[in-house]
Write a structure and sequence with these properties.
The chain is α+β, with helices and mostly antiparallel strands. It has four helices and six strands; from the N terminus they run H-E-E-E-E-H-H-E-E-H. 35% of the residues lie in helices and 28% in strands.
């Protein structure tokens, strides 16, 4: 793992880890961190499995920050963060994000928790 990726992971993990008590920590390693809901998914195709909320993963070329609520409830994302978007709910980072990007990811995470709570997915 590139040294820079350790710093990226360390900068992004607290965004999700701060809310771990509301979720089930599925993965917590030096290269991955994942949160699932404690209750089963409401979607038939995932019957019996917990609903995924978010994750952080160190890959070969970047560190990815996944936030499912961005997919389930599309929201406005800044142009700076949109540039890092891969797919519908993943953001890739090669270096430690700027404070504005970290603040936006924090706000998106809190908004996602609120969305999940309103839908009784937590």
């Amino acid at each position: 793992m590139p040294t820079d990726f350790k710093a990226v992971f360390a900068a992004l993990k607290p965004i999700l880890a701060k809310h771990a008590k509301k979720f089930r920590v599925k993965i917590d390693t030096a290269t991955g961190y994942s949160l699932d809901c404690k209750s089963p998914s409401p979607f038939p195709q995932h019957k019996g499995h917990p609903m995924f909320f978010g994750a952080l993963r160190v890959g070969k070329g970047y560190v990815s920050f996944h936030l499912m609520s961005v997919y389930t409830e599309p929201t406005k994302i800044s142009a700076a963060l949109k540039k890092r978007m891969q797919g519908k709910s993943c953001f890739n980072f090669k270096t430690v994000p700027e404070p504005e990007i970290i603040a936006e990811l924090k706000a998106l995470t809190v908004a996602g928790i609120k969305q999940y709570a309103e839908k009784k997915w937590l």
